[in-house]
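Give me C-alpha cells for this 254-residue protein.
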Amino acid sequence: MGETHRKVDFLPALGRRLIELQKEDFNKCIKHYRELEIDEDSIAGHNKDLLRRAHKIAFTMGLFVQKLSAVPPWVSPYLNCLKSDTIQIIPSIVLGNRRSLHLYERASIEDFLRYIYYFDHRIEHILLQNHPTKFQSLDSLIGWIKSYPSLIPYKKLVAQSCNNLTSRYGELSRTVHGTTIADIEPSDNLKALHKPLESPLTEMRTLKSIFKSIIFLLSLFHLEEFRAFSLDEKVLICQHLVKKEKQVLSGVEA
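Here you go.
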C-alpha cells in the first residue's frame, strides 16, 4: 500500500482569533480616517486593499515585538523601529505619498537587516553609536544573514529572500532619491499631495514581496520561539508566507 500523506491546514478555524482581532482593528483604522474626512477614494477599492495589507503587516510586527523574549537589549530599538516604520506606511498610503511609502518600506528593510546583524555584534553596535559614520553596508548585512549558521540548512530559501530584499531595496532607493524624472513627484499645493495612489496594485505587489521576505527570515531566525507560539500567533504570521515557507517554519516535510 502507498503511504498516505495528511494534508496540513496552516489556517485552521481554531487559530483565527487574532485574525478576527486584526480585522476589527483595521475597521477602527478606516473609521478613524473617515472621521478625519480623508478623500474616500484613498480608503476604497484597490487603495483599501493596499491599506488592509499594510495594516496586517503592522499588526504582525506588533506581535513580534510583544512575543520575542530572547532579544538582547542593544538590538530591541531596531525591532521597535521596524514596528514603527510599518505603522508609518499606513498614513503614507492614505495620503497617497508614494515617495514616503517607499521611504518607510526601505527603512523597514534596513531596520530588519541591522536587527539581525547587531543581534550577535554588541561591540560593533557600541562602536556605531560612538562613530555613527562607521555603519555596515547593505551587502555586508545581507551576507551575514546568508552565512548565519542556524540558517544554513535553509540556504536556498534564505538566499531567495535575501536576494529579493536586495533587489527591492534598489528599486525603492530610486524613488527615495529621485533617480529619474519618472521618480520625482513635484507638487505646487497641499491638495495635490493628498490624493489616492495612482498604482495601488503595483504598490501591493512590492509591499507583499518585501514583508514576505522579512517575516519569513525573522521567523526563521527565531525558529525555536516561533514554534513555541500559540496557534493563533502562528496563523497571524503565516498569512504573509507561501506554502514552502510555512512548511519549513512548521517542521513539515514538503
